[in-house]
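Notes continue from the previous slide.

Worked example: a multi-chain complex. Inputs as given:
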Amino acid sequence: MATSTMPRGWRLAGRYTLLIALAIVVLFPIWVMLVGAFKPGNKVLQNPLLPTHVTLDTLREAWRDGNLGRALVNSTIVALIVTVAQVVTAVLSAYAFAFLRFPGRTFVFGVFLATLLVPFEATVVVNRSTVQDLGWLNSYQGLAVPFLATAFGTFLVRQVFLTLPKDLREAARMDGLGHLGFLREVAVPLARPTLGALALFGFLSTWNQYLWPTTISTDDDWNTVQSGLRALAQAQIDKPNLVIAGTVIVALPIFVILLVFQRQLVRGLTAGAVKG
Amino acid sequence: MTRDAASRRRWRDAPLALAMLAPSLVVLGAFVLYPLARAFWLGHQRCDPTGANCQSNGWDQYIDVFRSKEFQQAFGVTFRFALLTVPVGLALGIGLAVLADKQLRGMGFFRTVFSSTVATSVAVASLMWFFLLNPSVGVLADWIGGVAKNPGLLQDEGTALWAVAVSSIWANLGFTFIVVTAGLQSIPADLYESAYVDGAGGWMRFSNVTLPMLGPTLLFAGVVLTSRAFQSYGEFDLLTGGGPNGSTTSLTYLIYGNNSIIKNNSGLQAAVAVLLFAVLLVLSLLQIRGVERRVHYGN
């Protein structure tokens, strides 16, 4: 083999060179964004790759013009509500499918699975008017309620519940634990890693939503970070580095959260790929 | 008596089950199933150009929409967008994951870097690329020159979709990298060892062990990327506004975009939304068939 006659040291050096080059390519847009965000508007054309004339003024201006403080609060509240609710609804419905016997169980489970086939983008036309009729435009209810339950969460948690040994439930029954007791004392603690992944996944996907908040938040005060960023980009189209400073403000919290919760993220993203 | 007992047991859990399922059923019913059914109904109504006065008049509006120049163009844009982003995105994800897979010094750092784009939302990623490609201040626009400076890659009909695709590939790279890396780690090491003993070189090991063992993972990643591509909206809204000249008006942008010609016509919007659902349904069914085949091979 041609490759194996090459000295090991050279191959290693080649691999590292390639890795470093690719890392630079991947990080390049992030670097240019950071450099731009810390430059004053009149210097944005000078040395776009080097952090010269570093200032916080552009970030401050973006924070103010984009009403980004309020948007960050809104996004945090909505994402937290959705995250907690998704975990609770997933646990409850998964328990019913995994441990309870009731007529029509297969059919109802089929209905849950069928909702996975409906892309959210196809339902916004109608959901927008539902939310409007409820008087929920520009409100936390409007931003959160459509996402309080997902079939994905139900399916994921049910998979975990199904792997728990049947004897466990029997033993718990002998100890006098009812269904709710068993759910609280045994099933949920055993499913904790999956619930962590589900929670992070729910938080991220809510935080990153774009179409929905731009559709139902017509008032500046009800923007999430994503729709707020859109508003900033459209209002300040002549000030590219003001917009990019806003982008940094919006991107930063999620970068930090993901660095902390890397493990849960991997588990959440690969949930569909690897057989449980 | 025994039948009674059996029937009682059958129903005994039912109230609890209903209580546990109710929250999910209400949300999924009101915000997934109802809107789909309602969109299906709205889609057959013909509205006047202001969007008011929608009337039921047969179901042929679906056929009209399907045949219209606008729908066909948007479908073509969406299809080409998926074709531009999915294979390249997958190949890059595999390449990065394989390179960073060895247990060598510093791989943790490279893994974090290659995963990092998963932290960018569609708005963040799009505005980053908007900045890079901006014809007056963008670094990339400066380097590329020519059409990138005037009128700009996002402003030129021939390059706009490509430029949006690059932004989307970059934004999805972190996801693909993470999924493929997890897939690589689940391949048993002894498979590589026996291939090595058999004298297989690096490329042979990759094509005869890695790729086949990654099959299910790649299917999953490919399906997710494809359905994301078909549902992409923010990229088009922020980078090009569907232009120039409709060259980046995807199906989603045709339904929801500010510059869309059916912006005020809820009947037409619903019809396109239902057709988008139908397209994605076909994709999902293909996926399910793929999974079945894989199980068949696997066992």
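Summary box: Chain A has a mean pLDDT of 89. Residues 205 and 260 of chain A are 17 Å apart (CA to CA).
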